[in-house]
Structures are given as C-alpha cells and as structure tokens.
Amino acid sequence: MVQDLPELPAEAFAKPDRSPDPLFYAQPRLVTHIDAAAIAAVTDLYRAVVPPGGVVLDLMSSWISHLPDEVAYARVIGHGLNAAELAANPRLARHFVQDLNAQPQLPLDTASVDAALICVSVQYLQRPVDVLSEVARVLRPGAPVVISFSNRCFPTKAVAIWSALDGTGHAQLVQLYLQRAGFARIEARILKPEGGAGDPLTAVLGWTTTA
C-alpha cells in the first residue's frame, strides 16, 4: 500500500466504488476486455517470453488466458474473483478464487512457477507491491512476470492513481511497483501504440535476476 510507495498520495489506491471487490465480480462476464488486435499482440508476447513446458501462473484471469494455442505448458494455474469464469477457461489445469486486495499471499510454493501473467488487470490492485512481492517469491530464478494493460478498465474499480495517469504514466507506475517488489530487471514494451487503430497495449516485464 502507500507505505511501500511513500511518494504517492495517501488516497492513491482508493477506488470510487469502495464495496468489496468480490461483490462487483459476483456475476461472470464471459467477454473480452481488449480487441482482437490487442489480444493477438499479447499472445505474440507470451509466445516469445513464456517458456513452453513450464508452469504458468495466470493472475487475475478470466475465461480466456490469451496463451498461444499451439504451445503446451506443464500446467497453467489460474486465479480470479469469479469461479464460473475460471471454470470456463480451457487452459487452466487448476484455479483458485482469492481477493488479492484483502489477502495478497499466494497459495503456491516458493520458486514453483516459470512465468506469471497479469493481463489488463493491474489497475485494480490496491496492494500492488505486496502482490508482486509474492509473485517474485513464487517465480523460479530467471522467470518472467508479464504485466500488460490498455486504456480500458472498469473505472469504478480502478485505483485513483491509475485513473489520474496516461499511458506513459501507467508504464512508469507498473515499473515502480516491480522495483519496490524486488525485481532486478524491468523492461517496458509498447505492443500497440496509443493513437492508432483499436486498443493500445503496453507490457511491463520483470525478472528477479539480471541474467
């Protein structure tokens, strides 16, 4: 929370809708939250950086994970706030429902995951450093976390600091989250620029080791 990011305002992680997040996500939404071209861009990124045959953690997932269809993984573990959405996701070998804003600790062993994904959901985290510190714990050395985001969101559930920033600011904010969570190497990539056709898409990647 703000104690991890003292340079941010006290209300940086407040939301317009302060009701518990599980209430908002109680009804399944079997829709895509970015357009087809943005989905293709994130899939291409996963194809390039997520190791085939590895264990993948898809945090804040839904009924689709955007992983490349032709690549096999040892196991894809999904997390979210709606059990029906997760149960409908054919890529998930297992899943769990957990409110990360209330309980950021992940029910996974240390150094047990080969890649972690957060797709168009980082804007909802109220304890991002706590959550990403847990991601760092469960990743194996050298394994990536891939955080992708657009300019689309549920505005009443996005944190205040996210809503106050533009696309460049979002990338800088996510890089700050990863830095405070202990990631040694951080890289931002513009997958689809703002101002073009369709949804823009940026990804910030982090690794706990520099090699």
Automatic annotation (TrEMBL):
Listed GO biological process terms: methylation
Residue intervals of the Methyltransferase type domain: 74-146
Domain of life: Bacteria
Keywords associated with the record: Methyltransferase, Transferase
Alphabetical list of Pfam families matching this protein: Methyltransf_11
Coiled-coil regions, chain positions: none
GO molecular function: S-adenosylmethionine-dependent methyltransferase activity
UniProt-listed SUPFAM superfamilies: S-adenosyl-L-methionine-dependent methyltransferases (SSF53335)
Gene3D superfamilies membership: Vaccinia Virus protein VP39
Keyword Nucleotide-binding on entry: no
Protein name: SAM-dependent methyltransferase
Source organism (scientific name): Methylobacterium brachiatum
